[in-house]
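Troubleshooting entry. Yesterday's outputs looked truncated, so today I'm pasting the complete records for two proteins to confirm everything comes through intact. If either block looks cut off, that's the bug. Protein one:
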Amino acid sequence: MSDLETELEAAAFRHLLDHLRRRTDVQNIDLMITGGFCRNCLADWYREAAEERGVELDKDAARERIYGEPFAQWKAKHQPEATPEQLAAFAAARRDHA
């Protein structure tokens, strides 16, 4: 992979993070239902990439990088309890992707 490709991918990733930080109305469960991943998945992938490169990064620090603030703060401000309909759709989506 060229330096340019890496720069472009990094720019796209930063844009995705900015977009998700602005779209707090889009819940993680909805992302999981429709896309099969959520902000927490991105944090896990970020942490795994760091570890593959010998960089220690705990789960909370990775989530803060993705959410732009500590996860507990973000969750308290933006994440209501999942509705029964969301939980049912999530269960159905998991079956479809299993």
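Protein two, checking that the full record survives here as well:
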Amino acid sequence: MDRFDAMRAFARVVETGSFTQAAQTLHMSRTTVTQLVQQLEARLRVRLLNRTTRQVNVTADGAAYYERVIRLLADLDDAETSLSTFAANPRGRLRVDVPSPLARLIIVPALHDFHARWPDIQLDLGASDRHVDLIDENVDCVIRGGAITDPSLVARHIGDLQAGLYAAPAYLEKHGTPVHPSELEAEPHQIIGYLRKHGGRLLHVTLQRGTERLTVQGRHTFAMDDGNTYMAAGLAGLGAIWLPDYMADAHVQRGELVRLFPDWTLDAMPLNLAFPPNRHVSAKLRVFIDWVVELMDRHVPVRRPTQ
């Protein structure tokens, strides 16, 4: 038994939940994958998987072993791809987590270009607004809006999100169009709250017009912690919402959202890519970072200081 082949087979069965699907992705027969996992269990003297005629479930021991295995396989892959013979053609599995709206509107539509450039990279894309522990979850990098405050991560500023306050026509017909941001603090107006991931605190926005600067908290009945859900609530007319312009533009063009207070500006939100400092920046991660920087420069470029 090749121990690394057995580990790869076991990890893929866990990830796909099926010996058949694991065999297909590994370009092996189902019998070979089954035998490799059985041999691994025999060597370890522990059951890693519970099998039934309908499904495969990982055991508690198997789950703990899987976390170790994927880190070991990732390190092995990084060691191989760091060699000059592989650097020109990076390959292997890359795990990335990004905000769901950014994934839906910018990254996913461009993935055909990434695959055309780097066809041997398998990209596992997590799309969420939740806090991701890169070490515990074995994620290579994350993209997040706002400052990266975790000192254990290396962060790179890759864009700036220009934003505004928006409301659906149905909301404005019912409550009227506010002419000053302070009106959002009183009846009949409502905002939709956006919950920060840490502590569930509401996100407050600051607007500026000339020398006038105002932080808006607003009254709210509804609050969400996911960008796509938050925008859906705004489109449904449940309240005014703060949105990056890249999320709002198409809806404004279709008449589904109206920008409020166009003579006021909001501070741009920095967009950062972060990865653990103790993780080797493999060839596949390096080319992904370069590709993302290029992509963000087209959609949400970094604001350069005015001279």
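Both blocks look complete. Sanity check on protein two: The radius of gyration is 24 Å.
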